[in-house]
Amino acid sequence: MRYLITTALEESWPEKRPLLMLGEWCRRYDRRAHVSGLDTQLAPPRGMTAAEKVRDGAEVRRVVEEMLPEIGAALDAHHGGEHSVRYWRIVLGHWLIRYVSVLYNRYTALSGVIATHEIEGTTVLDTDCYSLATADSDGFVWATDDDLWNHVLYARIVEFLAIRGRTIPINRADWIRRSEQGFSRQALPVRSTGQLSSLATRLAAILLPKLARERDAFLLSTYLPASQRARLELSLGQVPQLWRPGPAPGSPPNAMVRKRLPSLARSENEFELLARELWREVIPACFVEGYRTLVTRAGELGWPRRPRFVFTSNAFDTDEQFKVWIAGKVDEGTPYIVGQHGNNYGTHQWWGAEFWPERMTPDRFITWGWRDSDSRNVPAFVFKIAGKKRRDAQSAGGLLLVEVAIPHRISPHDSDAEFAIYQAEQFRFVRALPTEVCNRLTVRLHGEYRMHQWREDQRWADQEPLISIEKGIVPIEALVNASRLVVHSYDSTGILETLAMDIPTMCFWNGGLDHLLPSARPYYELLRGAGILHDTPEAAAVAVASCWADVAGWWWGSPVRRAREAFCDQYARTERTPVRTLRAVLTAVENVQ
C-alpha cells in the first residue's frame, strides 16, 4: 500500500487517502472522532528498548561533543569574544543535547518509514517565513511539542533527504495561519501567594541586596526549604538574599544575521551533516541576536562581583541570565557547585548521566547520598526535605496514586509511544484494585498536564468515571500527608522523598530495571524484594490490597525496614544537621581553589 506521511497538522490530512502517522501525537485524544474516520496506520515507534536507548544516546553524545567546541568558536567569532569550551557547555550544553536528540528522533523516524514503507508523498505547508528559532532554551523545550514547529522541522529534513537522493513527492499547500512566524510559548499559570506575602517578597528583594557584599557566596535555586537556606547563609556570615534573575531578552530571530554565522565543518555521517546544517536556523535567539544584551543584563543584576563560590540546584538549565553570568565567573576562577536536582542522578543510564552540563561543568556535584569514581561527586542529603519532621502514620487515610505528565518530545526515542504504555498501565492498576480500596483512591495528575495535548483528565473521565481525580491543584505534600499509602507510577523524585520521609510507599513502572546503571540495580532489587517496587500494575494492586488493612504493620516489618534504610543511605539520605553538613561541603570546595 502507498501512504502519505502526516506529522499531525489537520491541514495535511486529505480525505480517503491512506495516511501513515509518524507518532501518537498525530492522533490526539481531542481529535479522535476525526481521526477515526480516516484510513490511518501508525508508524512503528523507534528506539524503545533499553539497548536502543543506550545506543542512540551514545550517538547523540558523540555528535554533541563534536559540535560543541565548533559552535562555541563560531559564536565567539560572531560576537567578538573568546571563551572556553566549559563556558559554552554551561551556556549551550542543555540546549545542544536536546537539539541533537530532537533532530535525531525526527530524522530516524522519517528515514525509518522511507526504508520500510512505500511512500506516495507528503504535504508541506508554505512556511518560508516561519522561524524554528525560539526565544530561549525553555521555549525550545516547549516548541518540540508544537504541531506547526514540528511540521516545519520535518519539512526541513524532507528537503535534506531529497538532496541526498531519498526524494519524497511533496504537495505544497498554502499556509492558513500566516500571522505565525515562529513558536511562542504560552505562559504557565502562576499560583497566587497572597497580597501580603507577595508584598513582603518584593520588599525583601529590594532591601536585602543593599546588605550584600561583593565577596558573599551566591546561592540561587538551591532546592532547600526557605528556612534552611536562610540559616545556611547566616552560617556563612552573610545576610540571606532573595536573588531573582530576569527573563532573557526578547530579540526576534533574524535570518540574515544567522546566515553570517560561521559554518561548521562538514561530516561524512548523514545525521551529523544534517545537525551541522540546521543549527544556525534552530539555535535560540538569546544566544545569537540577543546574546550581547543578555550578557549586559546579567552584569547589571547586582549579584556579588567576586563571590566566594556559587551554588545552585536548579538554575543551570534554562535560566539564561544565570548561565552567562556563572559561565563568565567560572572562566575567572570562581568555584562553581551544583546540587542534585532530583532523581535519576547516579542511577539512570541516560537522564541524569555524567555528560549533562550540571555534571561536567561544576567543581563539585553534591548528591543526595551516592558517590562514584568521580571525585567531584560529594554525597550529602535530599535537599528538598531538609529540616522537615517525619509525619505520623495515617491509618485512616486513603490511597494516593501519583501521576506524571507526558514528557516533552525531546528524547531520541519515541516518548509519546512510551507514555501510551504508561497510561494503559495506570488504568490496569486501578482496575486490579478491590472495590473498597478503589473507593479510597485519589489519582493525582501532574499540574503540567494542562500544557500538553494528551488530555489525561478526559481519558480518566472516560475510562474510570468514578475515580477521584485531583488535577494538580492541591499541593502534593498535603495529599501525601493525608494518605495511608502512596503509590508512585514512575521512577520519580517523589519516591526518594517519601522513602526518605519514611512514608509508606509502593511503586511500579514499565521496563523494570533496564534503565538503571549496573551499580544502582542491587539497591532497586532490595525494594523489589521487600514489596515496595513491583514489576506490573497488577502486582502492585495485589500488594496494596494485601496490606491495606494494616499498612503500618507492613511498613514497619523487618524486610521493608532493611530495604528502605539501605536504599535511602545510598540515594535518599536525611541529615539531622543539614545546614552544618552542607556548609562544610561548600566551604571545602572554596578552600581547595
Quick overview of this protein structure:
With 593 residues, this protein is of the alpha/beta class.
What features would you describe in this structure?
With 593 residues, the chain is an alpha/beta fold. Among the domains are: 2-42, no CATH class; 200-246 and 302-387 and 577-592, no CATH class; 398-571, 3-Layer(aba) Sandwich (Rossmann fold), CATH 3.40.50. The protein is built from 22 helices and 16 strands. It has helices at 32-36, 50-79, 85-116, 137-143, 147-163, 195-207, 226-235, 255-259, 270-282, 291-299, 320-332, 357-360, 415-432, 435-438, 456-463, 476-481, 493-500, 521-529, 537-547, 551-555, 558-571, 578-592, and strands at residues 2-6, 19-21, 40-42, 118-125, 170-173, 218-220, 310-312, 336-339, 364-367, 377-379, 398-402, 441-444, 468-470, 483-488, 505-508, 533-534. It has a six-stranded parallel sheet. A five-stranded parallel sheet has the order 3-2-1-4-5, with helices on one face. Helix 2 packs across helix 3 and helix 3 (85-116) packs across helix 11 (320-332). The longest helix has 32 residues, at 85-116. The chain starts with a strand and ends with a helix.
